[in-house]
Design brief:
This protein is mainly beta. Helix content is 9%, strand content 53%. The strands form 2 sheets. The chain has a 6-stranded mixed barrel with strand order 1-2-7-3-6-5. It has a two-stranded antiparallel sheet with strand order 8-9. The longest helix is centred in the last third of the chain and has 7 residues.
Length: 127
């Protein structure tokens, strides 16, 4: 199965943020700069994650409230000093992971370098 990775801007707090939608990453991450636009919480213990070939540690999480192609989304995100750079050397400000994409029905279409929003979750039905 091919991993889906799409790069595009999303709107966070009225600001465009360069985002990597990556099905190969389970969780969602934001840079400290983006977190300054969000509600941030401190974790009781540091959390460690392996990302971009390095183990990183954070003791902050944020609620990512954003617009993805005009659709509102909310996701739990880990706050990191930096996420890394994309293939073009551009600084990634948000890494939108597989769990959040699944929750919101966002599907990357790598061959067309776009997101499929036709399955966007408009309402949650819980049983």
């Amino acid at each position: 199965m091919q991993m889906g990775r799409i790069r595009k801007s999303i709107e966070v707090g009225g600001r465009d943020c360069w985002t990597l939608f990556d099905t190969g990453a389970r969780n969602t991450y934001v840079t400290r700069d983006v977190a300054s636009l969000l509600s941030v919480s401190h974790t009781p213990q540091p959390m460690r994650t392996a990302l971009g070939g390095a183990v990183r540690e954070t003791s902050e999480t944020a609620v990512l409230e954003a617009l993805v192609e005009g659709h509102p989304v909310s996701a739990h995100a880990f706050v990191l000093d930096e996420i890394g750079r994309d293939e073009d050397g551009r600084n990634i400000e948000v890494l939108f992971g597989a769990l959040a994409m699944q929750q919101w029905g966002i599907r990357p279409v790598p061959d067309e370098e776009r997101l499929d929003m036709t399955h966007y979750t408009k309402e949650f039905v819980e049983f």
